Amino acid sequence: MDTFQIFQSPWACSDEDEKKYNELMKKIFELQLDEISTVLISMMSLFSSTNAKIHDELRANKTQEFFTNLMKKYIIHHVGKDAACQLLPKYIFMIAHLEEMAQIMVSKRLNI
Residues 84-94: pLDDT tens digits? Predict the structure, then answer.
């Protein structure tokens, strides 16, 4: 699914923002997440303290670490240890992509 199927252009303040959002979305779709890994990534993202001020940051970090370890175990079980060692960093980096996409949606979309 492409963003043009979701958002009618123009929806962002600039063409560059729309292109960046589309690039990030394509990178996420390239990972071909199944339902379980999607839920685990969602939970890892939910407890990310990278771009948010969290009241109990230590607890959020521990919770994120818990879900990251679940993700690691899950992908090792499904693709093996060698492939998981290459895949897990991509999943973790995807959190930064999701945060950047959220930032574009919050601060760089057109207010109609």
Answer: 999 999 999 98
